[in-house]
Amino acid sequence: MTAPDWTGLAEQLGTITRTASGYSERGGTDVAREALIEVLGEQLIGSCLDHYLAGGLGSELTRSILRELRPSTAMDRCMELYRTSSDRELGRKAVFALGDFADGHALQWYSELWASDDEVVRYSAVRLIDRLYMTGDLEPEDAINILQEARVDRDHNVLKYTEETIEMLQADIASREMRESLHE
């Protein structure tokens, strides 16, 4: 593997700003994540997702890579598989996988997933909201508002998971409010 053109990559990602006296740069975890996704490329990210969905040896490593990088191309691919695969189980696995590595990009699909007749897909929709809260992409109050419709699901497992998630969110809100009141 040849080394990337780091300067070119930094310019592509917009991390270099030219100034009258030279330049300034920015970095950080998000920029590093974007750079790694770019260096790995869509094909390797797709292979990582495919291996994860297939299961077996090495799938935990690929899940961890996806969780760390949270590539939008892999999220898009999950939804594509859900929408187009003739293999129902693969579609279910794909939307369940979103709950492992999604970020705010995936929120756009919640309503579509929730509207499914398939209880596994609806469970995954609740799991997605849980993930987005855990990653800081949703405030607990927003997550609770989104999950209100799930409180009447006809499937026992979906309903139970929804109630457990809402209870956790409410406890986190109460804990935050307690900490804030101590600092007043």
Description:
It contains nine helices and two strands; from the N terminus they run H-E-E-H-H-H-H-H-H-H-H. It has 184 residues and is mainly alpha-helical. A two-stranded antiparallel ribbon has the order 1-2. Helix 5 packs parallel to helix 7. The chain is flat and about 60 Å long. The mean pLDDT is 94.
Give helix % range. Answer: 55-70%
Query: SS-based structural class?
Result: mainly alpha
- CATH superfamily membership: Leucine-rich Repeat Variant
Based on CA atoms alone, the radius of gyration comes out at 20 Å
The name CATH uses for the topology is: Leucine-rich Repeat Variant
Helical segment tally?
9
- The level 1 CATH classification is Mainly Alpha
Relative strand content:
under 5%
Low confidence ranges: none
Quick overview:
This protein is mainly alpha-helical. The chain has a single domain (12-182), classed as Leucine-rich Repeat Variant, CATH 1.25.10.10. The protein has helices at residues 6-12, 29-54, 59-69, 72-84, 88-101, 110-114, 119-134, 140-147, 156-182, and strands spanning 16-19, 22-25.
